[in-house]
Amino acid sequence: MQEKITTKKEARCLVGKVISDKMNKTIVVEVKRTFLDDRLHKIMRTAKKYKVHDENEEAAEGDFVEIREGRPRSKTKYMYLSKVIEQLNK
Q1: How far apart are CA 88 and CA 34, in angstroms?
Q2: Closest Cα to residue 80, out of 32, 33, 59?
Q3: Which of 5, 27, 54, 87 has the most CB atoms lying inside 10 A of its own CB?
Q4: Backbone angles phi, psi at 43, to 5 degrees
Q5: Domain ranges, ordered by start, for the chain
């Protein structure tokens, strides 16, 4: 009998800025991305917003955070807070 070899998929890690912390245990993080377009040969900039689960409510608006992909918590929330990289001093 052959053994099944399963390898766990590496979770994506992204860095972004917290733009909202008004929800309970949820923050909204904006991740900006820069890439070279293949067809136009121009540098393109895009931004995407992610709803991120913040269990201990560590992050505040304006902080830079690292987030990782995980199993879905709700319909739109599948990212989790890894750590706060830089805090905004208020």
Answers
A1: 24
A2: 59
A3: 27
A4: -80, 120
A5: 13-86
Q: Which two tokens mark 14? A: 């992204």
User: pLDDT by residue (tens digit) across 23-69?
Assistant: 999 999 999 999 999 999 999 999 999 999 999 999 999 999 999 99
Q: Are 60 and 10 in contact (CB under 8 A)?
A: no
User: What is the DSSP secondary-structure string of 14-40?
Assistant: EEEEEEEEEETTEEEEEEEEEEE-TTT
Whole-number pLDDT of residue 2: 67
The radius of gyration of the chain's CA atoms, rounded to the nearest angstrom, is 16
Rounded Cα distance, 35 and 18, in Å: 22
pLDDT at residue 44, rounded to an integer: 97
pLDDT at position 90 is 62
Strand partners for 53: 26, 80
Region of poorest pLDDT, from 8-12, 27-31, 75-79? 8-12
